[in-house]
Amino acid sequence: MPIVEITLIEGRSFELKEKLVKEVTQAVVSSIGAPKEAVRVILREVPPWHFAAGGEVKGRPPEATE
């Protein structure tokens, strides 16, 4: 049973997340031949201030001050 875990910054619509899950599932089915019913996808959403790329945090919490 393949399990795919995806961490992304919160704020996307349900429809976009649903599309992502469907397309990731199909990619797993196509690439390794797993049955669709066996593919598990876990979406983990984090606030932008819990995510950084290139040493830069992607957002600030509402209560943060300079």
UniProtKB/TrEMBL annotation:
Its EC number is 5.3.2.-. Keywords: Isomerase. The active site is at residue 2. Transmembrane segments: none annotated. It comes from the Bacteria. Residues 2-59 form the 4-oxalocrotonate tautomerase-like domain. GO terms for molecular function: isomerase activity. Belongs to the 4-oxalocrotonate tautomerase family. This is Tautomerase. It comes from Acidocella aromatica. The lineage of its organism: Bacteria, Pseudomonadati, Pseudomonadota, Alphaproteobacteria, Acetobacterales.
